[in-house]
Amino acid sequence: MFWNKEMETLSLEKLRELQLERLKKVVKYAYERVPFYRKKFDEVGIKPEDIKSLEDIKYIPFTSKADLREVYPFGMFAVPLSEIVEIHSSSGTTGKPVVMGYTKNDLEVWKEVMARSLTMIGITREDIIQIAYGYGLFTGGLGFHYGALTIGATIVPVSAGNTRRQIELMRDFGTTVLCCTPSYALYLAEYAKDEMGIDPSGLRLRMGSFGAEMWTEEMRREIEKRFGIKAYNVYGLTEIIGPGVAHECQEQNGLHIWEDHFYPEIIDPETGEPLTDGERGELVLTTLTKEGVPMIRFRTRDITSLLPGECACGRTGRRIERIRGRSDDMIKVRGVMLFPYQIEQAILEIQGVEPHYQIILTRPHHLDEIEVQVEMSKETFSDEVREIEALRKKLEKRIEETVGIRVKVTLVEPKTIPRFEGKAKRVIDKREI
Amino acid sequence: MKIKQISVFLENKKGRLYEALKTLAQAGVNIRALSIADTSDFGILRMIVNKPEEAKKALEEGGFTTKITHVIAVGVRDEPGGLAEILKILYENDINVEYVYAFVEKSGEEALVVLRTNNLEKTIDILQAKGVKLLDSKAVENL
Description:
The complex is a heterodimer of chains A (about 425) and B (about 140). Chain A contains eleven helices and 21 strands.
């Protein structure tokens, strides 16, 4: 199902034409109205008129989260406050918060992209949509609210938290769509079953749109199984607009970016050089239509790739793969870019090995060495040296196949690798550079 | 005729062997035979003890990865060529020895060795047929 078939299936040629026209316009707009952009452009000696093709975007300096914090609160606004109708803000757990202002038209864009996202997975006005993302300065709750309002679904604006009530509402109202973070969805399923004796798969729920945190295919399958629903991946960020920058279609194979509003690039997070479709790197986004706070080449820190090829659903906008990590977690070894999750993936492919590992980087003879410590488990322990050696070799081979460089695997005793609540520290860099 | 051997995974780290043996001491386990197979990164401590199940439990509670495997205990004439004689029988019968190590004690006039081969059943049959003395678990516990 399409919300805006014309735009969603626009021919690539026309889409690129439209993007270029909008890019030129937004660059000029930002340069003229936001001192921050003017200064950045002037520093590298670029003028809005220099942008003659989409490729020329690479000459424009990046905008980082740190930049946005520096101009707190309203330094990025391109219009007077009287034009701003709504303000959202990121939590600011790692410093000053980032503040975004929306004009009336920005809200229209947000409604449009959210309406497309929800319609794409088959949500209609017949659905009862329970929004369990937080309402407030966080964009999750209101973003979904605007989308659901636009398509005319019945909204249950419950916001986040109060787990028992969430489940009672789902049961009593016959909620058909659940929107929340994937980890909260799993918690809801567990709570319903263990604390309330309600079988989550017996609810009327038929699908969910989950995001606002990194999650895996395994989690998707788990959510789908427990609730007996289809679980879709949503992507967005406050700096760009909130949820609705990209969303999965029913193929569940990558998230379509609404390219007529958000222009995506993938760059090498270390050099800033653009990468081609299919290559994995950091996602950089430029808003093509936003008025309140135009965002030019914003570095999302999210690692993904633009999937090449057309999607079976018929939409022409490119897809990003599921977010694979944060560029802050990236390590570069002997010139090769790698992420802890790649090593984790390789380890987990080998039967019986526990997902507890640590990566240690050293530079003993002017050359980087990677040691991956993996915990020996009861299942994999053998009395025979050669079997343990074989396991070690198998891990080394699998990791090398995945990341493309040789590593040394060391098997360590169980429970000797530190456990972390929340964000794990997987990499210990002992290189002296 | 198989007896239980307990194997422990040890990282090559200072004090790990001591920790393992201390754990056994505290559990009142007596070691009858012991060997260590080592590589540059890790070692496997193999032991015959008087109480294998208790030993395993204590070690696992102490955070060690352990495994019980089967081996045979062979009585060997305590004179030059005693062990060679046994190995010759195995060689002639196409049996590969995976490892061998000695007990602390003797059984009467015989030395005792722990033997693991690629085919324990066949080893037992052949050695018994040749009149070689094998100890059962009871005999090992009572050493």
